[in-house]
Structures are given as structure tokens and as C-alpha cells.
Sequence to fold (425 residues):
Amino acid sequence: MSSSNQNDLRNRILFTIFILAIYRLGTFVPLPGIDPSQLQVMMEGNQKGLLGMFNVFAGGAISRMAIFALGIMPYISSSIIVQLLTGVSDYFKNLKAQGEKGRQQITQITRYGTVLLATVQGYGLSVGLESSANLVINPGIFFKISTVTTIVAGTMFLMWLGEQITQRGIGNGISLIIFSGIVAEIPRALATTFELGRTGALSTLVIISIFIILILTIMFIVFMERALRKIPINYPKRQVGNKIYGGDSSHLPLKINSAGVIPAIFASALLLLPITFSNFNISENETFLNFASFFSQGQPLYMLLYASGIIFFTFFYTSITFNPNETAENLRKYGGFIPGIRPGESTALYIENILTKLTTIGALYLTLVCLMPEFLIANYPIPFYLGGTSILIVVVVAIDTVTQIQTRLMSSQYEQLIKKTQFGK
Fold:
């Protein structure tokens, strides 16, 4: 591997670490006008339900009421809306068909949507904070304006950081931002769990069982993410002049979980969006409190909506990222065929049938991993950062990032090999 390629990879990794460090610093910069002591008291009683989950995705910024309190969730929510529109709206379908130019327009629309959602959620946050007794030092219109402005600016800055990582760093920027927030808080979650064991709130047997389940969950995730269904592909021999080309055998790799961690993140975002700040309101509104209680861990409605969201987005995201018809057409164009299957439409149907079965298994796997630990969290005082969704995001993003690094290393080695071969000629 050449020194220039080594330097490029090292610079990308260092750049990614630098950007993530900036993000982590931002989660400790508090919003102006908040009483820290009152905030701590309020957060101690509101760690369950959607607020606890939102705090996970915000990297602990909610518990500190930092400038990144909304995290990257408005951008994710905006992306969901735009991608859903891409599937049903002719305007967005035409934009997608325009290639790079259309993609840039879709990205710009997503950004505008992020600003709009962040503004609405920022205003909801300011109202919720003011409704909490003695939390805001000087409530009023100035506090609302400053909070909304700061929150929107923080979200847009985070979105920009994510884009910079994707372009100039390693891995997917948005996923890595969520990943870093969870990883940074895991040591504290482990310390909290051990402290619960020391005080007697959790028995030693329960703690050991929890960690065994965590290890088994991680092993299961790694196995499922690496699992492939290889469809054999043959290429016929053909003669060009005096030389014979082709006659090779290859395979089309299909992952069990083609959607990755996106369905879990999207489903969580949809659950968080309607009542993002419901738990900030500690009023005596009985209807409101009853509504919020349905979204606590272990509740049937919460589990049903979460599972439905994961399954829907697994199929939806797979359908927009992998096109069986396009794959079949490319195989036909290059003379490839699946043994026993006619090229063209029959090949497309065959691939689609296999993909549907794999996606069903993948959806069930994601649902199991995300929901099973939630029952433990609902019944035991276990931190959210040790939940199924958190572990899934950490493991999958880590695998994807390592894969990208390996791909860059491999491509550099191939480049060097090709150069040496050409030089030898």
C-alpha cells in the first residue's frame, strides 16, 4: 500500500474522530436560561418512556438540555418523509430519475424539512420547559426565541457535521453521530448497573444474566449481519477473434438484512416525533398523562407500533435500495444467467422471491433484537443505553465502518498490483 493511500485513510479516520469530538463537546453546552439544579431533579424522574429513548439518540444531550438536545432526529424524520414521498409522489419520482441533479434537489428539500421540524420541535421544547416549575429562570418570549434559534442552529450544525463525515471521513456521518453518542454513554450505563447491584436494587444473578444476554445479542447481531444468500451466476463462453472469454462462475450476494440499522432508527424517530417532549409537561392534565403512559416501555401499544415501524421500514428501505428488475437487466446485458432460470423477467421474479423471504427474516430479526431487551428495561432499572436498539446501532455501525476501511485498504492494494503489472509489461 502506497504512502499517499495510507495518508488519505489516516486523514479520513482522524477527520472523523475530530468531527465526533466536536459533536460530543456540543452535548455539554447547555441552553441559556435553564436552572441546572431543577433540570437534574426533573430528569431523575423522567428517564423512562420516550424521553429516555430520545436521550439515547441525542447522546445524553437531553438530560443536560444542551444545544444539541434534538440531536439528529429532525433530519432523520425529514428523511423519512421525503423517502416516503419518493415512493408515492410523481414529482419526487421524477427528481430521483434525474440522477445526481435530482439527488441534490432531494437533499436540499430534506434540509428545508429539517429546519421546519426543528423549529416546531424547538418551540415545543421551549413551551414544555416553561411549563415545568422553576426550571426556566426568566420565562417569556425572549426565552422562546433564544431556545428555538439555538436548537435549530444546533440541529443544522449537526446535519452539516454528518455530511462532512460522509464526504471527507469514514462511514455514514449520521449513523456515526448516533453511534458516538451511545458509545460515550455506555460506560456510565454500566457503572449505573453495577451501582444498582451494589445497593441491592438488582441481584448479582440478574446482573450476570443481563450481561450474558447482551453478549449473546451482540453475537447474534454479528452473525445475522454477516449472513448472505449467494445466488449462483454463470457466464457463457464466447469467442472474440482467436481468444475465448467468459465461462466463469460467480454469485450474487444478498444480505439477510439489506436495510441495516435504518429501520430501527426510523421506527424510533416516528415514535418520538408526535410526542417528543411529552414528559416535559408535568401538569395535572389527566388525558395528556394517560396518553403519554401508553408509550412507556413494556406497554402493548408502544411494542406494537415499534414492531410495525421496524417491519414496514425494513421492507420499504430494501425496496428502494435494491431493484430486482435492474439487477436482472444488468445480468442479461453482460450475458450472465442463473442456472435453470430464464434471463429477463423470470430472473427478476426469482431474485424478488428470494429477496422477499430474506427481508421477512431480516425484519423479524430486527424486531426481536430491538424489542426483547425492552421487556428487561420495563421490568428492571436497566439504563436505556443497554437496550436492544442501542446495541444494534453500535454493532451494525461498527461493522459497516470497519468494512469501509477494509474496502479502502483492499482497493489500494489492487491499485498497487495493477501498477506493478503494467510497469512489468
